[in-house]
Amino acid sequence: MSERSTLRGSRLGARSYEDERGVEFAERQVIAYSCPIGHRFDVTFSTEAEVPALWDCPRCGAEALRQASERPEEKPLKPARTHWDMLLERRSIEELEALLDERLELLRAGLLPGAAHLAANARERKKTA
Ligand SMILES: [Zn+2]
After folding, report:
1. What is the CA(33)–ligand 1 centre distance, in A?
2. Residues 89, 61 share a domain
3. Among the residues of 15-115, which ranges form H helices?
4. Tally of domains within the chain
5. Strand partners, 34
6. Were both Cys, which of 7, 77, 85, 102 would link to 81 (CB 3.0–4.6 Å)?
7. What is the CA(36)–ligand 1 centre distance, in A?
8. CA of residue 37 to ligand 1 center, whole Å
9. How far is the CA of 113 from the centre of ligand 1 (A)?
C-alpha cells in the first residue's frame, strides 16, 4: 500500500512543468484504425504528418484501415462519367457507327499508324478464309 503511493507520488513529480518548459510540442492528432478482425486502436500523428490510410495492427499484424473520425456527410452518389458517356454527349450513335466503319476500313487497309500488326492479322484472315 505504501509502495503504491510512493510510485504514484514519483509519477506525479516526474510530470513537472519544469521539464516541459522551453519544449515546443507539435500539434497532434489521434487517428483511429481498425483491422479486418475488428481490433481498434489509435495512432498519434503530428498534424503536419501525412496520415497513412493503412497501419499494421499492433495485436495481429494485419493491415488496419484508417477510420474516418467523422462520418462525411452522405452525398447522393453521382455515378462517375465514363469515357463512353462523354463520347455520347458529343456524338450520336449513328455518327459513331459511321466513324467506326471509316476507322475499321483504314485499319484493315493498314493505313492507321501503329496498327500494322492488326492489318497483317486481317490480311492473314482473308488469306485463310
Ligand atoms: Zn488486428
Report:
1. 10
2. no
3. 17-20, 83-90, 93-108
4. 2
5. 40, 65
6. 85
7. 7
8. 6
9. 54
Predicted TM-score (pTM) of the model is 0.36
The answer to whether 40 touches 34, Cβ cutoff 8 Å, is yes
Q: Which domain holds residue 110?
A: 83-128
Same domain, 64 and 87: no
54 Cα: distance to centroid of ligand 1 (angstroms): 12
Shared domain for 88 and 123, answered yes or no, is: yes
Compute the distance from residue 120 Cα to the ligand 1 centre, in Å: 56
Torsion of CA 16, 21, 27, 33, to 10 degrees: -30
pLDDT tens track for 4-59: 545 555 555 555 555 556 666 678 899 999 999 999 999 999 988 888 999 999 99
Grid cell, residue 110, equals 493498314
- CATH code assigned at 32: 2.20.28.270
Query: Residue 34 Cα, ligand 1 centroid: separation in angstroms?
Result: 7
